């Protein structure tokens, strides 16, 4: 079980519940229950086009309320993937939930384009590749420190850097990986601490 993922899911649940309680207390509960049921019944899945979420009554809600419903829906999807052991997908979906939480409470600007969201998803995918390398090579007793782990996987990470045309210098790449391992809630941090399970293809 991924403890970092569990903690992040619990924290996101509290955040979303707080937003609903403070700002959207009058939102019809049947809409929220419907989203949960559609996730549980696989009507809404991790591959569902987000536009599908908002049909009927939900389609006429203000954009801010729709953003919060997006956050809630992706949270349900992340929780479902976590419960079935699909931790990598759970992290990806939780990132999407976080994005829409940001839109709802004003930390993110709604003008962000699909291209910008695409870049965010690419970044998360890169983190997953680094997490796999750290987890796969993790010594029995754990890493000495973040820098030790980054240096150990540097050759493979450099190959990834070249294949993805990230254009990072060796020094910048090492620093980036080290920063990811210190980032709260990061899948790379979970891999460093040995709580991340590599997803099979």
Instruction: Write the element-wise H/E pattern from the N-terminal end onward.
Output: HHHHHHHHH
Count of distinct strands: 0
Largest sheet: none
* Proportion of residues in helical segments: 55-70%
Which stretches are low in confidence, meaning pLDDT under 50 for 5 or more residues running?
Answer: 107-113
Overall pLDDT: 76
Gap between N and C termini: 18 Å
What portion of residues belong to β-strands?
A: under 5%
The tally of domains stands at 2
Shape: elongated
Using only CA atoms, what is the Rg?
Answer: 18 Å
- Number of DSSP helical runs: 9
Helix/sheet category: mainly alpha
What does this 3D model show about the protein?
This protein is mainly α and 201 residues long. The protein folds into two domains: 3-105; 119-192. The chain has helices at residues 3-23, 29-40, 63-83, 87-105, 114-137, 146-152, 154-163, 170-182, 187-192. Residues 107-113 have low confidence and may be disordered.
